[in-house]
Design goal:
The structure holds two protein chains of two kinds. Chain A contains 17 helices and 16 strands. Chain A is an alpha+beta fold. Chain A has two domains: about 120 residues, NADH:ubiquinone oxidoreductase Nqo5 subunit (Beta Polymerase, domain 2); about 325 residues, Cytochrome-c3 Hydrogenase, chain B. In chain A, β15 and β16 form a beta hairpin. The longest helix of chain B is centred in the C-terminal third of the chain and has 11 residues. The radius of gyration of chain B is 17 Å and the shape is globular. The chains are: A alpha+beta, B alpha/beta. The interface between A and B is large, with 57 and 49 residues.
């Protein structure tokens, strides 16, 4: 693969003390001294790259110290920059001056690792709530993860607004509906929102730490529960990282079936969300109609694959369930019926002025802000960001198909709903193609164990967008570090921007149109 | 508007009869409520739901309980936003450390007599997340629980059957 953009970025770093990192699989990687960590970010920013993720790791079991990594991407080119840090001086230069997305990543590194981004303007804890002991850094190897943490007194410094008529509305963590917990704090004047500050971490279950206690195989089940609505995409991204790290070959039939599961998951979630968006405008008719279609998919999932949400169907080296000829027919009939009904409902969606009133020009995420934040997935595609891993860096079998992703620029609630409507159609088309070209043969092969110190990198386009896994093998077949980056980790930033100037009663509608994961973010 | 009416007529009634209860899907614990209370809960049940650390799979299936296929309202089951109106607290997830306080406060805000039902394998024993610095495991470790509904996640039918069983209607 030609790496022109990466070369271009490096042109600005001539003479710098940078070496290739050969312990990475599935991605280009370099080692840079920490003094150059931020300079590298500048070079990639200038070359048009976005910041994909930033994370730290404790390599003491491998006989080294701490390290910090940043991943950048420009279309199909991904690159990881790694800098080693001494344990007694765990500091690195912040990337916040270059990338907005670095704000949350570095707060998280600071909170969970005790590694400080020097120059970061806002080092309030993230995920780590104020009642945690200050010295608790769970992702360090010397932290006892099984012990209960005491609760200390502490206070979170909220961003405040002052002035005549300014007041504050606090929402959550327990919400009114059947959704996940998080806290939203609005500063508003009358009904107009002047600022929204989100605060999460409520569903932090210690997932990244838990991975380190599991075998490679045991991790599959956990990855499938990082975000239960994205179980196929997460387990697939995890498996791909391990398979890449170990150089294992997955049978072609398994690749095809994985893609079928992935697209079914996309359809089921989009159907639910399109309905839920309408429900938040009090158009309950559409909510119930979409729920019926969604239910049809889940019932077929159960009948054909043994689980309504297709949990645990993807496994290391392949998939757990095959599809029979009868299953193929049942799936095709389902898609035909579903699509027919769906198109009728889309017409009703288009013809409804009261719905139009609520979804057009509400919660606008402008394309320039979306680009600055590096948002991904359907949120990005509704705001002019064309990225889709199935097209940009296609993994098998997508490299053998032409995937069309919709692109809108208006960035409002309607755009986010419409992108999903188009994606449902495209996923139906893809599944038909996948089924029509399903290779025969095995659906599972043996997956090897990655060698000590090797890190596997994977990118999968889940229904919310690009999911990244970076899994580093430790000694004796254990996971030294599993970095999970759900699309929500970057996309949550964008809702704070999109909501400004909207009215408080439109927040549930806006939030539903983003529908980001709390569990996938809090980990 | 006509299109909507036509679609409603075309759809008809899609609600399905609830399958027979599978007893292994529910574990009843602790003291059963006395008969008087059972009678009061029996025909109308208001539920306050709390996600105490779930992965969101249980929420998807719980939302499905309200769809036209399972139609929880036909059994008088209704989800409320306020704990003050609730008869039952329905909890998902292993209880995360960061949700412990919010869960206890919600429990305290529900008037007596109240029922607590935990759903999903995580609510039962912490599931794949276990017990750690961040996860307190079973809901029973944090508040008294009357029943557990099993599954990862439990299906909408299992959830409905479980709830009905707890209030003595199955």
């Amino acid at each position: 693969m030609k790496k022109d953009k990466i070369k271009e970025a490096f042109a600005g770093l001539v003479g710098a003390d940078i070496t290739p990192d050969n312990a990475h699989r599935g991605v280009s990687a370099i080692n840079a001294p920490r003094e150059l960590f931020s300079q590298c970010a500048g070079a990639f920013k200038d070359a048009g790259f976005r910041l994909v993720a930033e994370w730290a790791l404790d390599e003491t079991p491998l006989g080294r110290g701490f390290a910090v990594c940043a991943a950048y991407a420009h279309k199909k080119e991904y690159i990881v920059v790694k800098s080693s840090l001494p344990i007694d001086d765990a500091v690195f230069p912040t990337l916040t001056g270059k990338y907005v997305a670095a704000f949350r990543f570095e707060r998280q590194i600071h909170s969970l690792f005790g590694i400080t981004a020097f120059g970061h303007p806002d080092l309030r804890p993230w995920i780590k709530h104020e009642d945690w002991p200050a010295g608790a850094f769970p992702l360090r190897k010397n932290f006892n993860a099984s012990a209960k943490m005491e609760r200390v007194k502490g206070e979170y410094r909220w961003i405040r607004a002052e002035g005549e008529g300014v007041f504050e509305i606090a929402v959550g963590p327990v919400h009114a509906g059947i959704i996940e917990p998080g806290h939203f704090r609005f500063q508003s004047v009358g009904e107009d929102i002047i600022n929204l500050e989100t605060r999460f971490g409520y569903v932090h279950k210690g997932i990244e730490k838990r991975f380190e206690e599991l075998s490679f195989e045991g991790g599959v089940k956990l990855a499938g529960r990082v975000s239960g609505d994205t179980t196929v995409a997460h387990s697939l991204a995890y498996c791909r990282a391990i398979e890449t790290a170990s150089g294992s070959v997955v049978p072609r039939r398994a690749h095809w079936l994985r893609a079928v599961f992935l697209e079914l998951e996309r359809i089921a979630n989009h159907l639910g969300d399109i309905g839920a968006i309408c429900n938040d405008t009090a158009f309950t008719f559409m909510h119930y109609q979409m729920a019926i279609l969604r239910e049809k998919i889940l019932k077929t999932n159960y009948k054909l694959f043994g689980h309504r949400l297709t949990m645990d169907v993807v496994t290391l080296g392949g998939v757990r369930v095959d599809i029979t000829d009868g299953g193929v027919n049942a799936l095709l009939v389902l898609l035909d019926e579903m699509l027919k009904e769906f198109e009728r409902l889309v017409k009703i969606y288009e013809d409804n002025p009261s719905l139009e009133d609520r979804v057009y020009s509400t919660g606008i995420l402008a394309p320039d802000i979306a680009a600055e934040l590096g948002v991904v997935g359907f949120v990005g595609r509704a705001s002019g960001q064309a990225g889709d891993a199935r097209i940009d860096c296609p993994f098998t079998p997508y490299d053998e198909f032409i995937v069309k992703a919709p692109l809108l620029r208006s960035g409002d609630v309607h755009a986010r709903a419409w992108v999903r409507i188009e994606e449902v159609r495209e996923s139906v088309r893809l599944i038909r193609e996948l089924i029509g070209t399903l290779p025969s043969g095995l659906f599972q092969a043996k997956c090897l164990t990655p060698l000590e110190g090797v890190a596997g990198f994977s990118v999968v386009e889940g229904w919310r967008g690009e999911i990244i896994y970076w899994v580093q093998a430790g000694r004796d077949g254990v996971i030294n570090r599993c970095m999970v980056r759900d699309p929500s980790s970057v996309n949550w930033l964008s809702i704070e921007q999109a909501i400004k100037g909207n009215i408080v009663p439109d927040f549930p509608l806006c939030n539903k149109s983003f529908n980001q994961s709390y569990s996938g973010h809090d980990l | 508007m006509l299109k909507i009416f036509r679609q409603i007529l075309r759809t008809g009634v899609v609600t399905e009869e609830l399958p027979l209860v599978d007893e292994s899907k529910v574990t009843l614990t602790g003291a059963r409520l006395n008969e008087e209370v059972m009678k009061r809960f029996a025909n109308s049940l208001t539920i306050r739901f709390v996600d105490a650390g779930s992965c969101n799979a249980c929420e998807l299936e719980l939302n499905a309980v309200n769809n036209p296929i399972y139609d929880a309202e036909r059994f008088g089951i209704h989800f409320t936003a306020s704990p003050r109106f609730a008869d039952m607290l329905l909890v998902t997830g292993p209880v995360s450390r960061n949700m412990e306080v919010a869960l206890k406060r919600t429990y305290d805000a529900i008037p007596h007599p109240k029922l607590v039902v935990a759903m999903g394998v995580c609510g039962f024993n912490g599931g794949v997340f276990g017990e750690s610095y961040a996860s307190l495991g079973s809901v029973g470790n944090v508040i008294p629980v009357n029943a557990y509904i099993h599954g990862c996640p439990p299906s909408p039918a299992d959830i409905l059957n479980g709830i009905l069983r707890v209030i003595g209607r199955k």
